[in-house]
Amino acid sequence: MKPLPKKPPRPARKDVQGTRQRRAWPAAERVPGQTGAGAQTRRKRIASEADPGERLHKILAQAGIASRREVETWILAGRVQVNGRTAQVGQRVAHDDKVKVNGRLVTLHFTDRLPRVILYHKPEGEIVSRDDPEGRSSVFSALPRLRGERWVAVGRLDINTSGLLLFTTSGKLANQLMHPSSSLLREYAARILGDLPLEAQQRLCDGVQLEDGSACFHTLEDAGGQGANHWYRVSLHEGRNREVRRLFEAVGVKVSRLMRIRYGPFALPPRLKRGQCLELAPAEVRHLVAFLKERGGDAQTRENYAPKTQGPVFSTPKRRPAKDQRDL
Length: 328
What we know:
The chain is α+β, with helices and mostly antiparallel strands. The protein contains seven helices and 18 strands.
């Protein structure tokens, strides 16, 4: 009998799209006789060892789900799952992990992603809070909408104070800009009622005792004025609650109007009108991150980093329903 012809070799298996050959896991990382779920578990463990990931509560906070403290309470309550299993406090997650909150899949954002930064000209009458029992207008309702992220305010301004307010999608960057170790300079234009004698000006620069400790202005300059109203430009390296107003009140002077005109390397752009935003370009954000890392946010080196802030100025649809973004 003639031998049967040999069958031709089977073609390589295709993936779902049918265009690429299926890749095999490296032989050094395969276990003899182990296939299926066991091999998949081993591959995940090896991948997790190569990429330790980031803490779960931090990643969920960056995704705009809630604050870190709220996320921790959710984890303790068993409302968060990672790869189908109940999450634990302090657990780390990597890029390929599947995270669900209350059964819904969450899009994760890791710190290697470049954050967004915007400058906002806050008008008087808005509060820097998402929840207000009195139903007052919030700055967050005037900001561009985000998907899967949330805006984090860099410091606060009280309801009667206007001027420059910074927002970013990175909690880490916001903490760097606010932390006392960065010592970023905050500059304000203050209009006061009445006179401010030279003796009172010297006291404000030397230091005044407030309820929460001693405080002083880094600089105090006369900016002119007429009649009972007089303007001063003041600066300080911290941002305690109503600190500028309380300093003037400590020497018997009342502030009738207050506007923040600078925060660290950022000055309030003249073309940025009340209620409008200006977003930094990606190159400027990278420069800012490098500046804070190298200089530690030293306010005296602000000349070394001066953002151009020449991007498009835009308002929210609530304020300008015709367009989301508009060049001025």
